[in-house]
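SAMPLE LOG
Freezer: B-3
Tube label: C17
Construct: single chain, 200 aa
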Amino acid sequence: MTKTNNFSKVQRMVILAVLTALTLVMAFTPLGYLKVGVLSISFMCVPIAVGAITLGPGAGLLLGTVFGITSFAQCFGMDAFGTAMFTINPFFTFVICVVSRALMGLLTGLIASGLYKLFKDKKAGKFYLNDIIAVILCPVMNTAFFLGFMALFFGGTQVAGLDVITMVVIPALSINCVIEIIACTVIGSAVSIVVKKIVK
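STRUCTURE (predicted):
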């Protein structure tokens, strides 16, 4: 193994560690969530998208899982709606919080890798359409998986005095998804440009 390859591995490990730390910091500070009533507009997709696109599906899976675990931790008294869901069914709440985010991170990485091979963009340090597509799909999948599982497991039930479908799922689809897509696309694209230059 050459010194260049060794350096590349160290670079990737450092970047993954930084993104993991950023995910943890965002999860427990106002940087990660914007509270709007019972809804939480999340900016947590940004480090997951950056990691998945620049480091691959494995990094996306890891970062998505970390995001999911921090989201599940909010259900222990830090978030009223999450705590109410946990009280009703802890297992379903775990699936909604953790599995949905792990799938989102993994699939973002797989989509980015697949589009990279399809478009054959090999130039270092450039940000291409394939990456933009992956960045956009990351928050879309986050919303789809999270709300899809929520509707599947808690549809028709009252959580914290609210009907899940009419009071949470529908508003989240119209508000959360749009804002998260814009934030992830703008910030994720800019950060990914820098990270790709470092990695490549």
